[in-house]
Amino acid sequence: MNTIGWPNFRSLNQEGIVFAIAVVLFVAAAIGLPGFIDPNNLVAIVRSVSVLGILALGMAVVIIGRGIDLSAVAIMAMSVAWYLQLLNSGTPDGLAFAYVLAGVLAIGLLNGFLVAYADVPAIFVTLATGSFVFGYVRSQLITQDAVPVPQGHWVELLGGLRFLDIPIEVFVFAGLAFLFFLFLRYTKWGRYIYFAGDNPVAARNIGMPVRPMLVLRYVLSAFVALVAGLLTAASLHSINTRVVNSTLLYDIVLVAVIGGIGLSGGRGGVRNVLVGAALIGILLNAMTIIDIPLLYQNLIKAAILLGAIIVDGIINPRDEQTAQQGDI
Amino acid sequence: MSFRERLQSWRYNLVPDHVVGEILTKRWTDNAIPFLALVATLATFGSVIPGFFKLTALQESTRQLGEFSMVVTGMTVVMLGGGIDLSVGSIFALSCFSAVYVFFILEQSIWLALAASLATGLIFGAINGYLVGYLRLRAFLTTLVTFIFGRALFDILVTTYAADVQLSTATSDVLDFIGDSTFWGLSVSVWLAIILAIVTHIALTRSRPGWHVLAVGGSRRSAHNAGIRVRRTVFMTYVFSGFCASIGGFLIACRLSGAGPGTGLNLEIMALTAAVVGGVSLGGGRGSVIKGLMGAIIVLTMTNGLIRLGYGTGTNQMVLGIMLAVAVTIDIRWLKNRHKVLNEVYVAPVYLKMGETQSAAPGSGTPYELDNRLSAAEHIGLGELEGPEDVILDRDDNLYCGTRHGEIVRFFAPDYVRSEVFAHIGGFPLGLAFDKSGNLISCVGAMGLYSVSPDREVKRLSAETSRSWTSIVDDARLRDPNDCDIAPDGRIYFTDSTKRYDAHDWALDSIENRATGRLLVYDPKDGSTKTLLDGYRYTNGVCMAHDGKSLFFAESWACRVHRYWLEGPKAGTAECVIRDMPGYPDNINRASDGNYWMAWLGMRTPSFDLSLRHPDMRKRMTRRLPQDEWLFPNINTGGVVKFTEKGGIVEAMGDLTGGAHPMVTSMREHKGYLFVGGILNNRIGRYKIAGADPNWTSPASYWGAKP
């Protein structure tokens, strides 16, 4: 069985199905919706999923290693909010950025440490740290929900940067996707992630540094979140910390899971993220064009995510004999 | 005694180290941490916030507590079953909305509103239960998704109907009563929460469905293999959680007379934190409703207290995040390491200075001088037996012994080649004795005192005595009943060697050397068991004196034999008759010449005697070294000793070659032969005693000639 990288096109797997649905949706929307096929709209679709896709890349690496990172959105919003707050209160740029980098590193390490060395389930660790990061930054470090980007700062300039009429975040997404692809496919630790995700005990028994690798994944995810946050601030000229309470986090999981990255770990890759992001991007854009209210969009997304998880459960079933105790 | 030793003896004999280990064996230590946290939280906020404990303030916050603790109760049950329910916040909000919609917009009765609320919760819970229980999806993600779904639905409904609810004129006395009034000083929500908690607690601890939930949470696979309907059980836990959340939602609808965008927000993480902080284990099987309630009070006090102290937005999340992380980590580490800590701490050695002894070495010229006589014994059942601790013969010369497998094996006279399993008891049958009517009485290690009738009917006589007031571990249970003998009036006197260790850990007791051995008596007339003597270092063999007016019992780790008087002026007291022997005494039995046989299960060594004066060294040894490298008493050499009624030593014999009977735990004289057993041996020896009465038998000595 080929589970890493190249899929078997002859068999119909989840990724293939999702890709087909995305194509069908795309064609249907192109025919049925006015202005969908417009180049500007297509660029908007790609742009809208760029940040989502970047976050999903970090999430994908963690999920492949049989974990999950529910603190990603909190780290994304709060690190950048703190950074901007520091800038607005007159801290030198270099120092402020160093603070934020250190903070992001610390949270990534904390996540990794608790999961790897204290054996606490990832889902609880990251739920707790996400709540903590939001609460701490919101109550102690910043004064209001939204923090603006200072006039003329490089983050603002980044938002206006375009190449071939395509916004910069698309290129960042593409670049990061390529880097992650290289990492997962051609580096030793990247390959090890699959083994560690598939069977952590066996991976440890044959001598892989399973625990340091786990820590690395959470640190990686935290840094990816920082990048995504900077891009968000760049395009919106501010960061709104209320995004932490929105459904963005579930969109990220949705992109990863719907693209075919199994939640039980050891399966999937960068291409699954791209396919998932494409479907979600087209869907969100189409719903916006049809003018479905945001609340209903959430409902529809939740329904799709539920469907994705059910399909995941059917494709990767668990039964009473093989399920691990305490695996929730 | 040097000053150092005096200090050591005070330190280790007066400080009750063993209590720490005994407390750790208690299940209630799991509750101690959340309980202390609860007290600390209440004390802190009670002292910081003025008027925290005032009745009016309490009533408002307890109303909220009532609603919240119901949600936590539901969450607790789901977690006990090995799942998790993050959708409680959505269920809570949607149920609240259902009630509001039915009451204010449809203007129906409050009871119909309640029904709508409950239906919402049950349906939502059933969906969760179907997905997680029957489709076997991951609980965390699935309920996360149903949470988003429910939340989105609620947001849509609330924005659509908010204005209509505002304009509604519907009122109800019942609603006002539930929302505002109190009943015997407590609000309705608190009463309901208390009732729900009690019912749930009883259901979990005392009913079949509750046990199934705990079994599934404790080990899903074992529960499945044991035939429990795992899927249905899991399904029901989610339905129950939905039910609990929906009552909470109904109550808040009554309290606030409406539903807003903030209803049930962050409730799931609060409920989860509450359950985990209270000590309900992730992954299931461990926890209780009470723990969940303690956690609910802690979490609600914290979050409300912080709001009232005026901390800004986000503080709640910060504190919840910290509490959740800390509680989950403690829970995981505690579960994982508790037995390790227990193993390390449990052995708590005491100081003992053994008295000077006489040598038992061949050629030393002392009465204890060992030799090689037992190596000449013929063997019985070689290779068929494992661990014949005690041996006994009946009136028909058949030979009985217990084995490691919990059986009593009978070898048939006259050649003892043919054997059969006489009875299967379980445990480890140790001491044996025949009573007047031919029942075989046995002390069964780890089980109690048993009787086997001649037609093989096994009956338990006693498994417990009365509990002492100062005990922490239950010392009523007989842990290691070791040997028994029967008085002429039919009472059975027997020993329970230790209160601290199970029968198979008897060697650990020698390292600790704490005096917890007992002498007990079982009265067949009323079936009662009484403790006669307590506080001996491993009480072992018991033998009734020839006249039946006193008995001898061995105190193994102190190398002493005591005489306990049943009648006469000294009745009820014990005196030491042999002290400072060179070997560790085991069973004692009558000899044909009016003396007594005593087995030595091992020999004292200068090194172990020295270690007994260094409890600190033994403590370090048990903590730092693997068990197979510990310094144990020497149980590779033993022997048989004959002593007189006054305690004088007549002779000693052994097997210094170590070939047949290196250590001896029992011997029984019968018609001029000595039958020898050893708890670590694989045979019974039959040794011809020079000059012994060839007609003397033990049953006749006890109960007279054949009737």
Features:
heterodimer, A: 328 residues, mainly alpha, ABC transporter involved in vitamin B12 uptake, BtuC, 4 strands, B: alpha+beta, Neuraminidase, 3 domains, four-stranded antiparallel sheet, 19 helices, 26 strands, 43% helix
Characterization of the model:
Chain B: This is Inner-membrane translocator. Chain B: One of its GO terms (molecular function) is transmembrane transporter activity. Chain B: It is a multi-pass membrane protein. Chain B: The chain crosses the membrane at residues 32-53, 74-104, 110-132, 139-163, 183-204, 234-253, 265-285, 292-311. Chain B: It holds the Pfam family BPD_transp_2. Chain A has 328 residues and is mostly helical. Chain A has helices spanning 14-32, 39-64, 72-88, 93-116, 122-141, 154-160, 168-186, 188-198, 200-205, 210-236, 248-258, 270-290, 294-315; strands spanning 146-148, 162-163, 166-167, 238-240. In chain A, β2 and β3 (166-167) form a beta hairpin. Residues 1-10 of chain A have low confidence and may be disordered. Chain B has 707 residues and is an alpha+beta fold. Chain B has 3 domains: 15-48 and 266-281 and 295-346, no CATH class; 65-265, no CATH class; 373-461 and 478-703, 6 Propeller (Neuraminidase), CATH 2.120.10. In chain B, the strands form 7 sheets. Chain B has a 4-stranded antiparallel sheet, with no helix packed on it. A 4-stranded antiparallel sheet of chain B has the order 4-5-6-7, with no helix packed on it. In chain B, strands 8-9-10-11 form a 4-stranded antiparallel sheet, with no helix packed on it. In chain B, α8 packs across α12 (230-256). Chain B is elongated. Chains A and B meet through α5 and α13 of A and α7, α11, α13 and α15 of B.
